[in-house]
Amino acid sequence: MKLRVLTYNIHKGFSTSGLDFTLHAIKAALKVTQADILLLQEVVGENQQHQKAIANWPKESQFEFLADSVWPHYSYGKNAVFSLRNHGNAILSRFPIVKEENINISNNAWEQRGLLHCEISIPDLHKTLHIFNTHIDLWESGRRKQFEKILARARSHLPGDVPFLFGGDFNDWTTKLNPLLIEHLGVSEAHTQLYQKPAKSFPSHFPILPLDRLYFRHMQVRDCSLLKGHPWNTLSDHLPLLAEFDI
Q: Distance (Å, rounded) from C-alpha 217 to C-alpha 205?
């Protein structure tokens, strides 16, 4: 079967400048992609200050608001927790999520990071699809430490013969992490597989840095594209990456 998967840092529902609240437009744009599974980063679970100050702030969490009736199954990994607000990573799916766990991979107090690991039951697939979703450190030393934690999680909890997807905002602007993930996890990166290099996804108005990726194993990539231009260049500071797989 074909599986459409999208990874996207939604910037907490704000434009690149942080001045415009764009979550409603993001929701409309995501529906058009017809993605089966969304891997989202910087998703707000709660923000009491914005709820009072922004007139069209949703009553529910951002991941519930985005999921609506299109993606009835979702999982939220709460990573950055403050007194009046929290945010983290989320996975939205058309198919049932049968297992979920959020692993703390933080290296310091000011970059609270997590690895959201879900198993999804796909019709007519005898084995569950394993998915990692993450948003890792800005600094290379932190990214290397998190790579070791992610590798340890994969070795202890990821069967070698199951279909596997790993996406998110890797902040790997030097691309030094890319070959390590490919070698040690035994994965391929969707855009690299088709076009020999990761997609440049940041900043959205003039993308020059390859931060957002989709890695896969025991699947075949059919297509992978960066969603550019209107409306994507005004919705967040990142552009989404959309790939289609055979599994």
A: 31
Looking at residues 135-162, what average pLDDT do you find? 96
End-to-end Cα distance, the chain:
6
Instruction: Find how far residue 12's CA is from the centre of its chain.
Output: 13
For the chain, which residues make up each domain, given as ranges? 2-246
According to DSSP, the β-strands at 37-47 and 2-9 are parallel
Q: Residue 163 carries which side chain, given as an amino acid letter?
A: P
Topology of 2-246 in CATH?
Deoxyribonuclease I; Chain A (3.60.10)
- Quick one: pLDDT at residue 24? 98
What per-residue confidence (pLDDT) applies to 125?
87
Residue 105, number of CB atoms within 10 A of its CB: 24
CA distance 10 to 241: 12
Whole-number Å distance between alpha carbons of 45 and 240: 20
Q: Report whether pLDDT(62) > 90.
A: yes
